[in-house]
Write a structure and sequence with these properties.
- The complex is a heterodimer of chains A (172) and B (515).
- In chain A, 86% of the residues lie in helices and 0% in strands.
- Chain A is built from six helices and no strands.
- In chain A, helix 3 packs across helix 6.
- The longest helix of chain A has 33 residues.
- Chain B is an alpha/beta fold.
- Helix content of chain B is 34%, strand content 16%.
- In chain B, the strands form four sheets. Chain B has an eight-stranded mixed β-sheet with strand order 4-3-7-1-8-11-2-12, with helices on both faces.
- The longest helix of chain B is centred in the middle third of the chain and has 31 residues.
- The radius of gyration of chain B is 23 Å and the shape is globular.
- Classes of the chains: A mainly alpha (172), B alpha/beta (515).
- At the A-B interface, helix 2, helix 3 and helix 4 of A face helix 9 and helix 10 of B.
């Protein structure tokens, strides 16, 4: 157990990466919920709308935790030099990349002009390579992750309320 | 020594035999209930609802293609309603009407994936039969599933949607059955079922991958070269399995039962089995109709091709219905079962529109089939009076000897009620998915059928979309708008229709409906 805790990244780094995992996925679901809101208010009452928000946020929390858990596992399993040494930099980069890639794939499936999505995907890939290859950018990624924490704390709080509200809904 | 019959006994026997031979005719001439109220020995009731089956595409109702030979055969022992109408042009309003016996403005399932008002959770097909029948239900359709889950306390055996699925699932149904509508709305938000991009970025990709790699029986791929049928981005299924499952259910269900099976075909995607593909490659064309501002701009050629596929799919569905009915007959189920064959709405292949999710109410969208066969019925009875899907519930209640509760807007169908006054009543169908469940109806299309005429009124769409009046008896294709030529009739019907809208929009009515 001692060995395992030693292999874990420091707590403040874990929190920064967690924030980076939570932010993009929650930000996206917030946009989708805003998009869906007009159709929801036609058929649902306030408690049901709150329910829809709660279920979707709770699910998004699970998705975020799955990504975060995977990153922590990588940090534990792989050699320190490979990942754990620059956990915030690489973790944040991977978390953001996963979310953006998923978004690109989803748009790709739908898009009629796939070349526009292709250009966006290639640009994103180039940016990713640039950011991952230059150690100087570590600082940039760290400060980006720190800024995300404020919003992510709000999201985590919302997720907690959501889970509580879902449990409550099963009994009322 | 055998006892000899006396002359009196012989006369009794002859009279009894004569009565027995006349029994089927007597059943038809005795439309009122044959069963005592509150009795536990009523007939079984089987409702087979095939989604999106337009009566206008059935050879039973004079369609040019032989799409429904098996249903035509079944009609020889059934009441056939030739002018039966859905109360809406998509699943939610019309299915809710069938299950509650009231129009959408009363049950308030107006929107896509809408729910019925609280009061109908205790006042529906299943609650009315909870005491006298074993009730069971299944649907492929997620929108219909919302209602079944709302009524689940009164359904003895409710099967989840994935019961007949080859893969895919509606997870909310299994995980949060007691909170189904809300959990389902969340699920479709996460899966992106009714919006361009899914709310869940990762799970949606995982789901797409799973669909690609999911093993499907190789013979199914051969049977369905145009793709395995699926429901609303959710569940893959094969109709043959569904029909076999229904037959198994019917054989094993406790007596007396009320079974409601709402199957997806012939809803989009039109994927007929291989032996039905190109069955109707006959070069037939239907009259070109002017584009409507509320439909779309699908080309005539595309509409023609899709119509052919839809017809082929109907022919396939019909063959499976025939198989089910033949097996039911062999198993003796028809001897003690009231069998109802119907749909929730139709499909449109005209005026630039493909499908049914639009704001019009043309005949192809709302004219649906209704066939009712009562136990041991041997003759056909054709009924041409205009009827509505809201009439089904009171008819079943009356036939099974149950009381028709107060508040039901439907009437007992002709053929089951000696009171023929209902024949001249107005029948309504509406499309109002852009209105609030809790508020007044501001933007809607309302069709009113009276005598041989049909008035279509567009409210809240602006002046450029004018009213339409058709003589649906002499012009069933709705080619000639008579609104400006038959002014007297148009004004008379418009007066009645406007009064109806005013009455359903009154505050008392809205609060009563939402109570």
């Amino acid at each position: 157990m001692i060995a395992l805790s030693e292999r874990l990244p420091p707590r403040h780094e874990l929190f920064l990466v967690l924030a980076a995992c939570i932010f993009p996925i929650h930000f996206w679901i917030s946009i989708v919920l805003l998009y869906k809101f007009p159709s929801l208010i036609l058929k649902a009452n306030l408690w049901q709308i709150m329910g829809v928000f709660a279920y979707t946020f709770a699910f998004t929390l699970i998705e975020s935790l799955l990504i975060f858990g995977s990153l922590v596992m990588i940090a534990i399993i792989f050699p320190t030099k490979f990942f754990r040494a620059r956990f915030v930099h690489r973790g944040t980069l991977i978390a953001i990349s996963i979310a953006v890639s998923a978004l690109i794939i989803n748009f790709w499936v739908l898009a009629e002009n796939k070349w526009i999505i292709s250009i966006i995907a290639i640009s994103f890939l180039l940016l990713l390579i640039y950011l991952s290859q230059r150690p100087k950018e570590s600082k940039l990624m760290n400060s980006f992750a720190e800024r995300l924490t404020v919003i992510s704390i709000i999201f985590i709080f919302t997720d907690m309320l959501s889970v509580f509200y879902i449990i409550l809904r099963q009994f009322i | 020594m055998k006892p000899k019959l006396s002359r009196r006994e012989f006369i009794y026997l002859i009279s009894a035999a004569a009565l027995a031979s006349a029994a089927p005719t007597n059943i038809l001439s005795l439309p009122e209930s044959q069963f005592e109220s509150g009795s536990n020995e009523g007939p079984n009731v089987l409702i087979l609802l095939f989604d999106t089956l337009s009566a206008r595409h059935m050879s039973l109702h004079g369609y040019q293609r032989q799409t429904t030979p098996n249903i035509d055969k079944f009609a020889n022992r059934a009441f056939v309603y030739h002018n039966h109408f859905a109360s809406g042009n998509f699943t939610s309003p019309s299915t809710a009407s069938t299950l509650t016996g009231v129009y959408p403005w009363t049950h308030r399932a107006l929107n896509l994936s809408g729910t019925v008002s609280e009061q109908f959770i205790e006042k529906n097909l299943f609650s009315f039969f909870a005491e006298s029948h074993f009730t069971t239900a299944y649907t492929h359709n997620p929108f219909a599933s919302i209602f079944l889950n709302q009524f689940r306390d009164h359904i003895d055996e409710l099967f989840p949607m994935d019961t007949l699925g080859l893969g895919g699932n509606v997870y909310a149904e299994g995980l949060f059955p007691s909170d189904f509508p809300t959990a389902f709305w969340s699920e479709i938000t996460l899966r992106g079922t009714d919006q361009p991009i899914p709310g869940s970025l990762l799970a949606s990709i995982f789901e797409k991958l799973m669909q690609k790699i999911r093993p499907v029986r190789p013979d199914y791929r051969e049977m369905y070269p145009e793709g395995i049928p699926f429901t609303y981005k959710g569940i893959y299924f094969v109709l043959e399995e569904a029909i076999d499952w229904i037959l198994d259910q019917l054989i094993t269900l406790p007596q007396s039962f009320l079974a409601y099976y709402h199957l997806w075909p012939p809803h989009l995607p039109y994927t007929p089995r291989a032996d039905f593909i190109n069955k109707f490659n006959d070069g037939k064309y239907w009259p070109e109709k002017p584009l409507h501002a509320l439909t779309g701009d699908t080309s005539g050629l595309e509409l023609h091709e899709q119509r052919q596929k839809y017809d082929e799919y109907i022919a396939f569905v019909d063959s499976e219905i025939g198989r089910l009915l033949d097996n039911m007959e062999r198993a003796g189920i028809l001897d003690n079962t009231m069998v109802i064959l119907t749909s929730d709405h139709g499909e449109l292949f005209e005026r630039g529109m493909l499908g049914h999710l639009n704001s019009t109410l043309y005949q192809n969208l709302i004219h649906i089939p209704l066939l009712i066969s009562i136990p041991n019925q041997q003759i056909r009875k054709d009924i041409y009076s205009k009827t509505s899907c809201i009439d089904l519930l009171p008819t079943i209640l009356q036939f099974t000897g149950n009381k028709i509760p107060h508040g039901i807007e439907g009437q007992v169908l002709p053929g089951f009620n000696s009171n023929e006054e209902q024949i001249d009543r107005s029948i309504f169908a509406m499309e109002s998915k852009l209105n609030s469940k809790m508020g007044s109806l501001k933007k809607l299309t309302l069709a009113m059928m009276k005598d041989q005429y049909k008035l279509i009124h567009y409210r809240g769409y602006g002046e450029e979309i004018g009213e339409e009046l058709y003589d649906i008896k002499n012009d069933p294709e709705e080619l000639n708008n008579l609104y400006s030529t038959k002014k007297f009739i148009a004004e008379d019907m418009m007066y009645e229709l406007t009064r109806k809208i005013k009455s359903v929009n009154s505050q008392e009515q809205i609060s009563h409906s939402n109570s």
